[in-house]
Amino acid sequence: MARAGYAVFDSDMHCVEPPELWERYIEPGYQARAPRSSEFAFRNALVYMELEQRLMPWFDPRGPDGRRLPAVLPSPQVRAAVRQAVEQRPEARALEAFQQSRFADFSRRGWSAQTQLEAMEAEGVDMTVVFPTSGLLALAVDELEPGFAAAVARAYNNWLYDYVKHAPRKLLGAAMVSPFSVEDAVREAHRAVKELGFRALFLRPNPVCGRQWYDPIYDPLWEACTELGVPVVFHEGVGSHLPQAGSQFGSNIFLRHVACHSMEMMYATMAFCGGGVLARHPTLKVGFFEGNCGWVPWLLHRMDEHWEIQLGVSHKQLPEPPSHYFRRQCVVSVEADEDFVTHVVEHLGSADNIVFSTDWPHPDSRYPRAIERFLQIPLPESARRKILWENCARFYGVGDSSGER
């Protein structure tokens, strides 16, 4: 279904997982600890999770009186009270009204795979890779017990397999893997790709257990991705019990959300391009999604400048400037109204490292006019075709990368 003559591969659409997903899909031994979202979050496609007696909503958990609510919730009664307090906050009610004004029918029908296919048809998207909503928080508590964390990831992937099988040529899966045990992550990567047919792995960009992504402990996972021929994608979600940019703003969701997505993508880019991961793994593909793209020229310039004067790193340790590794192995997503993508293309010298995202059905999505809005940006037709189809098809290993249907 070409939109204005362009085939469109959306690098990053979202499913909206039912609150009881993990209770239904997790192995019996972990059922009592299963993560759970809320009906409010599910109805409104908002990121929210209750995990290991901790609450992770979009909003800093404060009550109507402004007092901060406890981070650890020791009983179902306390969890229910805190959840209610969070959902009554003005920010939550405003987002509910906004989401229901756009997505009431999809919400009423339970955010099924069929509703996503209908949204793709309305927007003009031919193919997409599916990322989670509440699942972005499903492993976002530091020091999770590794066996439990791996079971959480397996449960999500099994549910996602049942979701995408409704249209396997249009809906492709991105597997959740647990960073709490690299061995478990490697095992699940092989299962997700070889048995479930998924096209990517995804991780939060936040450091886990105090380790940076360039720590050699993760090398077996990057080697597995290379062997399997799939990329690793970093995708942030506001709310976390992991270290996160923007957390210093506390209950100010405006500033927290402005900060976390783009800044965490920058940190992850630094780890991979400047921390030596891509130098050690020259065929590994890495994506940095839903964090905008305008920061790319500045960050590459700053890293290259520090590399040039060997400030804390020698050319023997990192043979090429960080921008070399970004251009060779990375993509970053652009959303519909990022007019400054023209400057990114100009700085990089091509559009080869940029993929398109609608971010459906989250509040900052421009659905159902995301593609229409993107096509207003003054880019050459060749760049549009690369961004809307060719780069994404190459990144995810989908056969036809002509950009025409």
From TrEMBL:
Residues 105-397 form the Amidohydrolase-related domain. Pfam families: Amidohydro_2. InterPro entries: ACMSD (IPR032465), Amidohydro-rel (IPR006680), Metal_Hydrolase (IPR032466). Keywords: Lyase. This is Amidohydrolase family protein.
